[in-house]
Amino acid sequence: MSPELAEIFGLHAGDGYLRNDGKRVELDISGHVEDKEYYDKHVSNLFAKEFGIKLNCRYFPSRNTYGFVIRDKSIVELLHKFGFPYGKKGDIVRVPNYILNSADSINKARFLRGLADTDGSLTFDRKFNGNYTEFKRSRNYYPRIILATTSKLLCRDASKLLEDLKLKHRIQVYKPKKASERVKYTIWIVGVEQLEKWIKTVGFANSSKFSRYLIWKKFGHCPPRTTQEQRTKILKGELDLKLLYGRVAQSG
């Protein structure tokens, strides 16, 4: 198990789909359109290094996502061999036992990185209740990493990986009121200390997530609902982030 393969497993757990229906054998992974740079550069490098193949990443207009499809039977069967199911996996996907029960902390961290880069989020909150300063009430400064899934198994397994890496977290179970909705399991990693430990231990390879961290690190806060284009401009000094508070951020 290489670190690259562990990370590939993590990103598949987040945004992947395995198909082997007798007609098509394929691995389909795609995410938000703002993840284009992540797929074109980082994910492509992972697959090139691990499998020696070149990904053809593209936009999928029917589902408004960006990613790739590969039909290499050996890769599809490899993921299935390590426990990833064919077809819908949302409620049953989990961390492969090889990683879960390993003493290798690097592979555990790389799986979590792949999962967070595809299916996680980094946001910053304000503090409204209590005797907080004007800065804390008006600026999004308090960090939280969120991993959300409909798989109880994946939530439990990811929690074990976090415990092994000494990352403090809590789990929240959301039980929907509508019968059409599914139970959601959310892992919360909050606070400055845990964010910095995450960056040091796990990290983000997805610039859509990491750019938020860089803005927070430089300015002490990061406006909500920004685009990747805006965050790039903020970091280059081409956009005043204070202008993005008090309204829904628009591109440009």
Report on the structure:
This protein has 252 residues and is an alpha+beta fold. The chain has two domains: 3-90, Endonuclease I-creI, CATH 3.10.28; 118-244, Roll (Endonuclease I-creI), CATH 3.10.28.10. Helix content is 42%, strand content 19%. It has helices spanning 3-15, 36-51, 73-81, 97-100, 105-119, 134-138, 152-164, 192-201, 207-219, 228-236, and strands spanning 16-20, 25-31, 58-60, 65-70, 120-125, 142-149, 170-174, 184-190. The strands form two sheets. Strands 1-2-4-3 form a four-stranded antiparallel β-sheet. It has a four-stranded antiparallel β-sheet with strand order 5-6-8-7. A hairpin with a 4-residue loop joins strand 3 and strand 4 (65-70). It is globular, with a radius of gyration of 19 Å. The N and C termini lie far apart (43 Å).
Summary of the model, kept short:
With 252 residues, the chain is of the alpha+beta class. 42% of the residues lie in helices and 19% in strands.
From the N-terminal CA to the C-terminal CA, the straight-line distance is: 43 Å
How much strand? Answer: 15-25%
For the largest beta-sheet, the strand count, sense and barrel status come to:
4 strands, antiparallel
Low-confidence stretches: 248-252
Helix count equals: 10
Number of strands: 8
- The oligomeric state of the chains shown is single chain
CATH class of the largest domain: Alpha Beta
Percent of residues in helical segments? 40-55%
Going by CATH, the architecture of the largest domain would be Roll
Structural class of the helix and strand makeup?
alpha+beta
CATH superfamily of the largest domain: Homing endonucleases
Task: Please list the strands of the largest sheet in the order they lie side by side.
Answer: 1-2-4-3
Order of helices and strands: HEEHEEHHHEHEHEEHHH
